[in-house]
Design goal:
Residues 17-27 have a biased composition (Basic residues). With 365 residues, the protein is of the alpha+beta class. Helix content is 14%, strand content 25%. It has seven helices and 18 strands. The strands form six sheets. It has a five-stranded antiparallel β-sheet. A five-stranded mixed β-sheet has the order 7-10-9-16-15, with no helix packed on it. A two-stranded antiparallel sheet has the order 1-2. The protein is globular and about 45 Å long.
């Protein structure tokens, strides 16, 4: 592991976690006290039976470690920034994956999540740099879904993994066993002056487990790229009039699509916009932050900081989320021949999630 994402050290006071960026290496330390229960195998492979997944979901309290944590704080764009983490904590420790239930993908039960085949997404193919053609992604992903949550809050919550019970899974190796994706979505009106980038919103939190076939299914180059992203390495980017140095994390790319467009009763203008932007990949920079914990990597995607035009478009779509089956995935953009074809980091489907049915999460002042 590189210097920017080394494994946390453990002492008598608890576990110290590091939060780094490529511009400075200031350390934020958190003390977390954990007690693990007996091991429980959590199914992550799409080949496993639906009954096993349903049983795992019903027994979530056994599958996720039972702990009470005491948290103590010691105090396509062109830049990358990291904000300080607020020391506020949830009033009550939350069980990861407890607010949105699992559902087999063929049932599409409203208010649920489903595992999704990585190969359902189209990505840059092997010869993309020559022919600009996209192909269906390889079948294996780096991480497979474990669960999902939606939390409402009076302000956006960064590094949300500190406030939920993360599964007690530790796979030997340099790659964290758990990937947490925290999508921070505003529920207040966008400002054209971009002076306001925090306020009431929802956190859609997705949990993934490292694939048991990580070394077998993924190319050596993609695994190397994942390590570079975790370690917050930098790379030289060719440009005019001169080359530049950029964080490797700037290659992180969001894949998203609405599956059931025909069921949304869109106007002609809305259909035109949907056809233009549905399934169009977007680089997450600079509105992303990375946090490395004891056994997890968290990626925060901050929609609050999106451009005014993007915010307004998303704002008009919020009320239709409860009607949508949404596919979400992440990949690392392939800019060189050896990076291709692109592979999926993770993939999941959210079925007709209605944020108005979720409760406001209280924060300690």
């Amino acid at each position: 592991m590189g210097g920017c994402a080394s494994k946390p050290k453990v002492n008598d006071d608890g576990v110290k976690m590091k939060r780094m960026n490529c511009h400075n290496h200031r350390r934020k330390r958190r003390r977390i006290l954990r007690r693990r229960v007996s091991s429980h195998k959590i199914e992550s492979n799409l080949g496993h039976s639906n009954s096993a997944l349903q049983a795992s979901n019903r027994a979530s309290d056994a599958a996720w470690f039972d702990s009470t944590s005491a948290l103590d704080s010691e105090c396509d764009d062109e830049f990358y920034s990291v904000y300080d983490v607020s020391p506020r904590a949830f009033k009550q420790k939350l069980v990861a994956g407890s607010t949105i239930p699992f559902c087999p993908i063929e049932k599409q039960t409203p208010g649920s999540w489903s595992p999704l085949e990585p190969s359902s997404f189209r990505v840059r193919g092997k010869n993309y740099l020559r022919d600009k053609k996209k192909e269906f992604a390889p079948s294996g992903a780096a991480f497979y879904p474990l669960g999902a949550d939606l939390f409402l809050s009076p302000r956006k919550v960064d590094h949300i993994a500190r406030y939920v019970q993360i599964p007690a899974i530790n796979v030997p190796g340099d790659v964290p066993s758990i990937l947490v994706v925290n999508i921070q979505i505003p529920l207040y009106t966008a400002s054209i002056f971009q002076s306001e980038n925090d306020g009431e919103g929802m956190n859609v939190v997705l949990y993934f487990k490292l694939s048991e076939k990580y070394s077998k299914d993924l190319s050596e180059q993609f695994r190397e790229n994942i390590t570079k992203m975790i370690n917050d390495e930098v790379e030289r980017v060719k440009g005019f009039p001169m080359d530049s140095i950029a964080p490797f994390r700037d290659r992180l790319k969001i894949l998203g699509r609405v599956v059931n467009v025909d069921n949304l009763n869109l106007s002609a203008t809305e259909k035109k916009l949907m056809n233009a932007y549905n399934e169009k990949p977007v680089l997450s920079r600079p509105q992303h932050e990375f946090y490395l914990g004891e056994n997890y990597l968290e990626i925060d995607i901050d929609v609050h900081r999106f451009s005014y035009i993007a915010r307004k478009g998303f704002e008009g779509f919020i009320e239709r989320l409860k009607l949508c089956n949404l596919d979400f995935g992440l990949t690392i953009q392939g800019n060189k021949p050896e990076d291709l074809p692109e592979h999926l980091l993770c993939a999941i489907r959210l079925n007709k999630i209605d944020h108005s049915t979720f409760n406001q999460i209280g924060l300690l002042s």
